[in-house]
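Hey Z.,

So I finally got round to the adenosine-5'-triphosphate thing we talked about over coffee. Here's the setup:
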Amino acid sequence: MSGEVIGIDDVSLTYHAANSDVHALDNVSIFASEGEFVALVGPSGCGKSTLLKLVSGLLSPSSGAIRVNGREIRGPTASVGVVFQSPLLMAWRSILENILLQIEIRGLRVQDYRETAQELIQLVALEGFENAYPHQLSGGMQQRVGLCRALIHDPDLLLMDEPFGALDAMTREQMNSELQSIWMKRRKTVLFITHSISEAVYLADRVLVMSPRPGRIVGEIKVELPRPRTVASTETLEFTHLTRQVRQHLNTEEGIG
Amino acid sequence: MPSSWNVFKANSVRRERALDILMPVMAVAVALMLWSAAVKVFEIPEYLLPAPLDVVVRLGEEWRRLADECLYTLQSVLLGFSASVLIGVPLAFWVVCSRSIERMLMPFLVMSQTIPKVAIAPILVVWLGFGILPKIAVVFLISFFPIIVSTIVGLKGVENDMIDLVRSMGAKTPKIMLKVRGPAALPQMFGGFKIAICFSVVGAIVGEFVGSDKGVGFLLLTSAGDLDGSLIWAALFVLIAMGVILFSIVSKLERLLIPWHVSVRIESTTAYQS
Ligand SMILES: Nc1ncnc2c1ncn2[C@@H]1O[C@H](COP(=O)(O)OP(=O)(O)OP(=O)(O)O)[C@@H](O)[C@H]1O
Ligand SMILES: [Mg+2]
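And the result:
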């Protein structure tokens, strides 16, 4: 592992809403090095999406600094790809055009990226659907298109906000294993937000646990299970042990444990 | 995909298209038959309500005059409606781009709609004379509101996450408008156009009622003065035909410009039926 790709350095953020201020993040620090897969778990409303918006440059922190590739960010940056919970495909664009949206918006030459788009489509097993429209695809297929769109410009950093939260359990397992193999091939740095503890442990090199109101990092669990991880790895004692650790961090913070 | 499935799908879409034409035609035919029967059974005098056949005969006799008046009215409808589109749509984009523009403009827009057009039409005649201009102005006033409102609703109706997504790609307001909000608003825009084109026909007639010596509205006024029932209805038929044809042209344009929207709609209706 080499250089730092994500540097969230003692960041706090307060939303100034109409009637009350929401202290969403409190002195959060997260560092991720190149090629690392970091998962972030935490209860609803603890500021996970806020954190992701900060890293993608959609929000700026009230205090502290955010660096991507060592450079402090002010506004959206070039080397980031984002996947949200819903696929957010445009109904009026074909699958290929949806993937190339990233290129168009960034003002790059679409022609130069057609081949890459084709490779990505193959990578997620969507060959033959290039010219289909989003409404002709299942939810899982749509989310894969969203993944291709996030990867097309070859970003250093992939940000995913509960990308598989809306999928059924079986599709979700399949998407997890696909994401792992894509990650193993491309070795992007990933910040992956999820509600699912087992998903986090299955995918990540490191799981960070957040507590709500204000959002803080309250636990860090290193996952050193060998890759590629399979369904069988989720049935090992070690896996169970790790998920229990994550759960304990979550519970103590909520005052249950 | 198996080809038999494609055939099935093509057939069901074709059947939908045929029904799209057949069912309204049949509904109108039934209505006309009921109307004929009613006139005969209740012995309604012609100046109150002529039989549809009498109206058709009158249409044949007067077609030249009707066509003239119709063309005149059509002119103000088309010019007024075009002005509404050309002004309403960019104005809606502007309103959505800037909160302060919205704050300043919306009161005027809403106020302009609370004024009854019939009341303002005489003033327009005073301002603009007896020519076609005041009619175009009434058409404009009556039709730009649905266009601007539906366009604003469409432009604003994009999910926040979608906006965040393109902003994360570095898009600024002009690109967001062009690549996201604009295309996403097209279905709503056409909803507004469809209302507006029908309102436009009404607007043109209102304009002609107030001060005109030409147009279908003028013909309606004079024939009503003469208690000429079949001519009134012949003029009304022309007016209805104009409205229906204009409306279907807008629908056709909708199909051409936003096939993604229309095909989504057709597929979901066939899915519900089968
Ligand atoms: N635009 C905003 N204005 C005011 N408050 C906000 C805004 N966005 C989020 N918040 C508040 O900040 C806190 C964190 O929100 P955030 O969306 O980051 O949570 P989250 O961890 O992603 O939750 P979930 O798991 O449900 O998606 C919440 O209490 C929320 O109410
Ligand atoms: Mg969230």
